[in-house]
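Morning!

As promised:
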Amino acid sequence: MTFLLAVIVGVLYGAGTYLILRRSLVKVIFGLILLGHAANLMIFTVGRLTKGAPAFVPKGTEALVEPFADPLPQALILTAIVIGFGVQAFTIVLFKRTYQSLGTEDLDRMRSTDELPGEKQ
Amino acid sequence: MYSIILSTASRYLLLLLLIFSVFLLLRGHNEPGGGFVGGLVAAAAYALYFIANGIEAAKTVLRFDPLRIIAAGLITAIASTLPSLVAGERFMTAFWIDTGIPFIGKVGTPLLFDLGIYFLVLGITLSIIFSLAEEDRS
Amino acid sequence: MNRIVMLPILMPLCTAVAMIFFRRRILLHRMLNAAGMAAMLGVSLVLLSNVKAGGILSLQVGGWEAPFGITFVADMLSSIMVVASAFIGFTTALYSLGTIDEKREHYFYYPLLQILMMGINGAFLTGDIFNLYVWFEVMLISSFVLLVLGGRPQQLEGAIKYVTLNLLSSSVFLAAVGILYGTAGTLNMADLAQRIPLLEHRELLSVVAVLFMITFGVKAAMFPLFFWLPASYHTPPVAVSAIFAGLLTKVGVYAIMRFFTTIFVHEEAAFIHQVLLVLSAFTMAVGVLGAVAQYDMRKLLSFHIISQIGYMIFALALQSPLAIAGALFYMIHNIVAKTNLFYLSGIIRRLKGSWDLREIGGIYRFYPMLGLLFLVPALGLAGIPPLSGFWAKFLVIKAGLDSEHYLLVGVALCVSMLTLFSMIKIWNEAFWKDDPLGEGGVEDEAYLKMPGMRKAMIVLPIVILGTVTVVFGLWFDPFFGLADKAALELLDAGEYIDAVLGGKS
């Protein structure tokens, strides 16, 4: 299972990297989302996979019953997903506004911020 | 796109989903659930209503400005930390009161914090959805 | 009374919430913002004096003992940085009163500024790596919005580059956190410092170290990861550029300092220091060369940020107590001088109506005092005695000579010359030469019509920051004493570990 997840993480990273290298804004945002998922899945995988119950103390007992899954990676991923959700929503709106405002979604044509000293804006 | 079936159903579904979201919020003490999930479900309820009846109707039914809901959620969450400050305990230490009433049981500051999260998530999700919808229309 | 550690984080949050609640009362926003920043400055000064008197303070949130809960720690380094950030926040609050237009104010400019401060202070004070990630995100998302507020095409374009590269670095950060947790089983900084030397499976540690170096390198605008900075920092209003220039990259440098002097000091990560040394030389040189080529004032200053980051990285990679203290002193000096220069560029733009140095001139004839105010941070940045930059560069170069990195010291000195050159270039073009548009030139109408109160709000922060630059230079000893104490704490993690894990809370 770990091996399978490792492969999936690798595929996600590969796809994400490929997409953010594209010139189209839409592909860049997809790439960023895939990279976020890859990182989350990686935390899950590296945090050791266990076939166990969630880390809740069952009724009538005082301590956790083995085997239980480590709750910390799950908490990290949950937080990261929430943050990622907010940031990605913002990014999508930003990219959309940029497309409307500049009339292009080709990154190579967005170079007014890097103009050489001689050129006028 | 207006569908009379969805529009009629969404009115009942809104109430049902809101009750379910409160159930999730309260369940979050000892079992899976909590303010975050509850807030998302509540936001989904309003989102469904918005899809069925349009943005104006959804805003009327929500009554409050989503930004106000965010602020209220944050205030509630911050307020839940006050008891720890007043009592001189370490910051955000939980306080519990055992009401002894069946089904309610112990009530404490984590519940208040969760309630804050519930409103925060509801407000943020709805403000994202509403502003995207308005962007689309203009 | 360790609760004071939380205050620099809680206060901006409360201020921001109050502002969102009264969203239409712009006057209230302005007052709350300035008052909130002033109060934060006061609290952070108290925090610094407490830490100085009583050693490292730590706070376990919710009473969950470290390493299981989230810890906030205020050691010397953190409290100095919090004071610096609150100070810059305060001056920016004043400067915003004079410069920010009402439309931006309606779109939550002030709450965003407060949230930005919360993120920055949180990053400085946290003792937990995942929590650091969260604060970075808080800081980033508010900086994203501040950057695009106003929505001019150029701003959007700059924001795309800024957002994309910073999100990329966040995902690298997340991956590094995941692997570190898998390897070491903890994310508490003090616990890591204690546990990493004893770990059995060390294969992944160097990978983690490199990942952290990359992610903080992007935040700190280190060579070759700086491209987002000159593409975006000149697009928002000056008040926003100034607070970004002063604080955001320094949070990255702070993180590098914290990680590579306290946590990753074992032999698997020692090569990082070598890599940092080489990269610092390139950062210094590329930054200043980029600056020399520019005629747009803000772009010129943006490239200077990169160059100055190089000095800090150079010093902290040397790892001697003197070098770390030098890096910290450099950072504080740079925060003050750089923010000041951005404020000044805003005034020049308002007077002459252009950012382009070739199109303006003759300011000295009409505003000689402004010339003096400009020379203080400009010469300070270049390192002319008796201003603060002289001591900062002196410490860094002394540390470099002590550890026999002669080549790097040579690079640092040459870069220093070029810094002076580009500062003189601004002086010559904007202040000294005759106005190319004739006598007086275009005075910006809007500026002339501004009420005196608003003008005072623009000049006041510049005077305050200029005074600090001079004071740092003339009364160097007490400030160096603080930096030295911080450096010793960083290099010997024992006290830090005791404060967090020793049970006293």
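The radius of gyration of chain B is 17 Å.

Hope this helps with the figure draft.
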